[in-house]
Amino acid sequence: MAILITNIKEIIQVEEKPKLKISGPGMQTLKTIKNGWLLIENDRIRDFGKMPFDEQQLKKYIQSSNIQHPTSSIQHPASNIQHPVTEIDATGKMVFPSFCDSHTHLVYAGSREIEYIDKIKGLSYEEIARRGGGILNSARRLHETSEEDLVAQALGRLREIMMLGTGAVEIKSGYGLTVEDELKMLRVIKKLKTLSPVTIVPTFLGAHALPAAYNGKQDEFVDMVINEMIPRVASEELADFIDVFCDRGFFTVTDTDRILNAGMKYGMRPKIHANELDYSGGIQIGVKYNALSVDHLEYTGMEEIQCLIGTETMPTVLPGAAFFLGMKSAPVRQMINAGLSVAMASDYNPGSSPSGNMQFILSMACIRYKMLPAEAIHAVTINGAYAMGLSDEYGSIARGKKANLFITCPIPTMEFMPYAYGSNKVDTVILNGNIVQ
Ligand code: NIG
Ligand code: FE
User: Fold this and answer.
1) Is residue 398 part of a domain?
2) Is residue 116 part of a domain?
3) Entry pTM
4) Residue nearest to atom 3 of ligand 1 (CA)
5) Cα 205 to ligand 2 centroid, rounded to whole Å
6) What's the number of domains the chain is made of?
7) Is the distance from the beta carbon of residue 170 to the nearest atom of ligand 1 less than 6 Å?
8) What is the CATH number of the domain that holds 331?
9) Ramachandran category for residue 82: left, alpha or beta (phi over 0 → left; psi -120 to 50 → alpha)
């Protein structure tokens, strides 16, 4: 099947020579095509260019293509010939690559708005955790909820973020805290991969919080993660990446070192929570293990920035969590000025960021982190794709890449996307070459 989009006001984030990530001053350059067309063949972006797109061109593409199974046959306006091509007239509208949300915890049971009230009254994230709220609260609920129910709840969230423009998402375990419940979460994530058109990347987060049963015995819990959880997760091939909440009050650098070392032996590359609550050493330990990303980063100084320079590790900032918890902003400007790449993700979870809306993340990137719209768009597309190991196929409009993109509502400029925060500017969603909304 094929989809031809014509009269596109502007195609955003076009790459002639695709890059795996965009760094430093390069983030200010965003290639676009004004008044364009884009052709999708099966699940791939076949080609794009500037209007006009004439009948002869379309014929040529059809003759040289594998377009065999039309789902619809439309009459091209320029002739009487029937084509196995769905045509979309995008007059006044723009095309963006789908958002790539590289950090979420969107499999969870219920919600935690009561803690949110405690937060409003002044309790900190750590105080709530110490009272048995926070991650332990979600773990309790997850334990009591069936796999079917967890799948149904998560599917609703996936559907919501898909309609807001997300086309690929990482989902972490971490509300299990026991071997069986961690496996249950990861099996739910595996099931979601078969049910949702959104591309899903699973991450094992065994060390997310210390369960009450291990109070005073953190070493024993870490032993259990290493000796029992990791081998089971690996043998069932349930996760691509391994995460640790390496921060003050959660897991130490020594714990993290042991867990990452064990995970790497089973082929799970790290993507870790680091420097959200303190200068925890999380960034350094992530870099030591060649983590694909280190995430949160509110407590990042020049030492941490220096440590990231020249590495393959993507600094990933989570504006939703910083906003929701009222924390200071990660020093994104300094990172980019130092030549680093930056990705931004939603951190969709019930405790610190109960929203997976990447359009809002895009707005916050500009308003709170002083990113230019071009930089912010790279952060939520190609750099997010990199932080999931997907940027060879996702995250930009390039020939041969996965046809994961959205058509906006009529908007005056590209900058209108971050500017008009709070409203949904996504009109049509195309994932894997299919119109899903
Ligand atoms: O990324 N920081 C650790 N984990 C999550 C919060 C999880 C929760 O509170 O349920 C985060 O913010
Ligand atoms: Fe997180």
Assistant:
1) no
2) yes
3) 0.95
4) 245
5) 10
6) 2
7) no
8) 3.20.20.140
9) beta
